[in-house]
Request: fold
Amino acid sequence: MNIKRTTTKLTPFCAGLLLFVSCNQASKTEVTLKDYGAEPTVINIDAYTMSNSNFRTALWTGVNLQSTLMSIPVGGDVGLEKHPTTDQFLRIEEGTAQVVMGDTETSLTFVKTAEKDFAIFVPAGKWHNIINTGNKPLKLYSIYSPVQHPHGTVHQTQEEAEEAEEAENQRYFNKNENFMTQELIQLPYATNALAPAISKQTIEFHHGKHLQGYVNNLKNLIQGTEFANADLETIIRESDGAIFNNAGQILNHNLYFTQFSPTGGGKPAGRLAQAIDAAYGSFENFQKEFEAAGVSLFGSGWVWLAADRDGKLSITKESNAGNPLTKGLKPILTFDVWEHAYYLDFQNRRADQLKSLWIIVDWKIVESRY
Ligand SMILES: [Fe+2]
Reply:
């Protein structure tokens, strides 16, 4: 959302002389409130902060750092929260606040008053809140490292911010994971490296033609829609029809291609191995059930090993572009049972393809998803 405003502000020269001479010179700062993204940007942050009347407006979202503008109404607060791995800097441009921080939600032993021109540093892992104790909106800007909110975030009210945070908590994947890319993913191995489980020719068609097609389609479909700046997980959770199908196929293929390695094979270890034993009795039994699910899937689709929020595993079959995310499950491992995944190498022998894939599964990668 772009909001254009113009603020009138005394130049520093005028402001400095104001006490001594009458000075009517003023500079006009044109303010366009939007997320400038990871672009070179120079702005008058004071004018931008004063112009913002949303609870939160993302101003600049880079790769490692983000700036947001906040306006906290009289009697309101930022909201008691903790960012486990994010440091935060805030600067108050107008208003008066009480700043509280602590190690737990109930022991906020650090208490300070802050006002215009004060800076607040919040270390990662500290519970914190900033309460507007003045009689006008508290105007501040915040800098997060790493990025905290999606690019282009606008929360008009605190309620809207809390709803978005709730949705964020339901997510399974970090937006920065390599498999979350909407561009054609780079394969972490040479196109001939997975043969004979998957031939060079199949990889070249599957990755270079089929996946590239989904990437091109999604780009065209989301242009100008509410999903234009959304990540794959959000699109899959919230869309349907062609947008869902193409976003689903991109994430499914990204998870598929990145789970293989020419030095793969063997068995999982650690927590995942224990969970597989608990759910299927043994790894060998799990393999049998997984292959059987893939073989019995009618038409095109994907067979998945997925986990619920307690880590309980299940094997699910999904038609077409389906993904366990839509059932509230986290995708861990997947075999593609669309014919385009194996027809050049195995023709109609889907079972043989599924059986052959085990020797290239990189269990370290799969374990990292669990
Ligand atoms: Fe595929």
